Amino acid sequence: MSSSSEPQPLLALVEALRRLPSVGERTARRMAYHLLQHDLKAAQQLGQALTDAVQRLQHCQLCNGFTETPVCATCEHTERDASLLCIVETPADQNSIEATRGYQGLYYVLMGSLAPLEGRGPDELDFDRVLERATNGVVQEVILATNFTAEGETTAHYLGEALRVKGIKVTRLARGVPAGSEIEYVDAGTVAWALLERKPT
């Protein structure tokens, strides 16, 4: 429990750290005290890095990933296969697929998955933009690389149906990725195999 004697800036720092995934109040408080007691330089670097990221990063106009420029380096890379579009939930998932070095197509980053109970539907994820990107006349195959969770499966099903209606070939990562897992935490070899063995949905 928070103590009423703690200074407001400390309480605000703890509350901000609690917003990170899997960080509860006790962990957030330990982080805050560690930074302020033992590593003020790291605390200042963290604050500056967050400020810089918020101010300088934007979403790529094509893939929706993070970039400093209107179009990211991956989308601008002339040697990427523009006929392949891999749809992922997060930039971390994109990084995991890139780490396999086995995929040379382009991406679209959803920045989430369908979760109606949490208020995330097709409009919140801007599915119209996804469909526009996938039906640009260049894309021949869309790989649905959403996570094998209930939300990821729902997202893949919804997008798969919408894309097939538009005549786009749709495939899904093979089940080498364990059910219920998140791509970000799966080893690169397994992700590479799942890409190679992807199946029509």
Please explain how this structure is put together:
By secondary structure, the protein is α/β, with parallel strands linked by helices. The chain has two domains: 8-56, Orthogonal Bundle (Helicase, Ruva Protein, domain 3); 60-200, Dna Topoisomerase Vi A Subunit, Chain: A, domain 2. The chain contains eight helices and seven strands. The protein has helices at residues 8-17, 25-38, 40-56, 73-76, 91-99, 127-134, 150-165, 188-196, and strands at 58-59, 66-67, 81-88, 105-109, 141-144, 169-172, 199-200. The strands form two sheets. The chain has a five-stranded mixed β-sheet with strand order 4-3-5-6-7. Helix 1 packs across helix 2 (25-38). The longest helix has 17 residues, at 40-56. It is elongated and about 65 Å long.
